[in-house]
Amino acid sequence: MVQTETFKALVLDQDDAGLQVAMKQLTRSDLPDGDVLVAVEYSDLNYKDGLAVTGTGKIVRNFPMVPGIDFSGTVVESRSPDYQPGDKVILTGWFVGERHWGGYAQMACVKSDWLVHLPDGMTTQEAMAIGTAGFTSMLAVMALEDHGLKPDSREVIVTGAAGGLGSVAVAVLAHIGYNVAASTGRSETHDYLRALGAKTIVGREEISSAKRALESERWSGAVDSVGGDTLAGLLSMMAYHTSIAVCGNAGGVKFASTVMPFLLRGVNLLGIDSVSCPQPRRREAWNRLARDMPRELLARMTQVVSLEAVPDLSQQIIKGQIQGRVVIDLNA
């Protein structure tokens, strides 16, 4: 845990030549305002981080910026009655790493309203193995349950299943008793997905190529991190009075469908927002993750890297080449 006056950070800046990505030494005086100072132990790599670090998406608009939408660590200083020095904390969302300096630095100064306490029994490394991807997965599972999802003979499908969000969704759903189908376009991930608990592997094209307004009823629920043609195909295959939790757009932000799944089968589309999720729901989701995410499977889906590896891995994640979760050890 770093508490020195200088600390390392990955910093994005922009000049006439375009986006600049550099490792720098910063001081506490460089940090933005906030009422809690945290010694960051771990961060992670999400799809949004990859877009930010590569400049592929308009994620960062103010420069210089320390990216990293998640982090976990230990409180060093606090002006908030809710947090004391020594407390272990997690931050995900709230536009950190986009509008406010984020987790790709050994120190972070943030608003206390953005933090949650680390759940009992969870380590700071495990928290970042879960991160925004896993947190969003749990919000999706909770939303499906709120709309009537219960274990039965039909399968729940997870799209983009080999990615970080999908991997956690597969593992959690299987652990709590659902029959899980994992959809992926990468044949090399099939054994990995079965090890996480998937009973069935479904090719990406099998869903995205669906043409009819209503296909045969197949799924009792869906966690969709892909969007685009995949979401359109899912809609046509949902069973009567079921729901899709929509939580990603790796396959595109637009989709073409009809009203028939809604009118004739009562299908629901449930939008999942993890960035501004209210604190009570946020704490509930983290406590569920502490209980329902098997630790051995979390370790199996996770690789731990140094901060210096982030630029190269960012290129890989936006190309769909990352399997599972990437944790960044800020002290490596």
Domain count = 2
Helical content stands at 25-40%
What's the tally of helices? 10
Biggest β-sheet strands, sense, barrel: 7 strands, mixed
CATH topology of the largest domain: Quinone Oxidoreductase, Chain A, domain 1
Report the portion of residues in β strands: 25-35%
The CATH architecture assignment of the largest domain turns out to be: Alpha-Beta Complex
Query: Structural class of the helices, strands and pairings?
Result: alpha/beta
β-strand number: 15
Arithmetic mean pLDDT: 94
Order of helices and strands: EEEHEEEEHEHEHEHEHEHEHHEHE
CATH superfamily of the largest domain: Medium-chain alcohol dehydrogenases, catalytic domain
**End-to-end distance:** 11 Å
Radius of gyration: 20 Å
C-alpha geometry? globular
The residue ranges in which pLDDT falls below 50 over 5 or more consecutive positions are none
Reading off the top of the CATH hierarchy, the class of the largest domain is best stated as Alpha Beta
Summarize the structure.
By secondary structure, this protein is an alpha/beta fold. It contains ten helices and 15 strands. The strands form three sheets. Strands 3, 4, 5, 6, 7, 14 and 15 form a seven-stranded mixed beta sheet that branches.
